[in-house]
């Protein structure tokens, strides 16, 4: 059953991607911690369509919080720890 995309938290996605092997099933041919996860894996975890999951991942990528890597015909998403630390510092300084 698909749930409303408004109940999806992008913070949940970022949290899951801290340790993707703990939150997503193993992928053939790739290491989750090194390469990240696919839109399909995120969609299944969230209980939403690939289109909705892709929109969330796209927003996080455009913000610079996620990096992408193409392997075969799939795109894998993983956290950009340096950018996330920069954003956290901005908020700590009262941005």
Task: Characterize the structure shown.
With 95 residues, the protein is of the alpha+beta class. The protein has six helices and two strands, in the order αααααββα. It has helices at 10-16, 20-23, 32-35, 39-46, 50-62, 81-92; strands spanning 66-71, 74-79. A two-stranded antiparallel sheet has the order 1-2. β1 (66-71) and β2 form a beta hairpin. α4 (39-46) packs across α5. The protein is globular. The relative contact order is 0.17.
Any descriptors?
single chain; 95 residues; alpha+beta; two-stranded antiparallel sheet; 6 helices; disordered N terminus
In short:
By secondary structure, the chain is of the alpha+beta class. The chain has helices spanning 10-16, 20-23, 32-35, 39-46, 50-62, 81-92; strands at 66-71, 74-79. The protein has a two-stranded antiparallel sheet with strand order 1-2.
Radius of gyration: 13 Å
**Overall strand count:** 2
Helix content: 40-55%
- Tally of contiguous helical segments: 6
Spans of at least 5 consecutive residues whose pLDDT stays below 50 are: 1-5
Mean pLDDT metric: 90
Q: Termini distance?
A: 39 Å
What is the succession of H and E elements? HHHHHEEH
Reported for the largest beta sheet, the result is:
2 strands, antiparallel
> In order across it, which strands form the biggest sheet?
1-2
Percent strand: 5-15%
The shape is globular
Helix vs. strand class:
alpha+beta
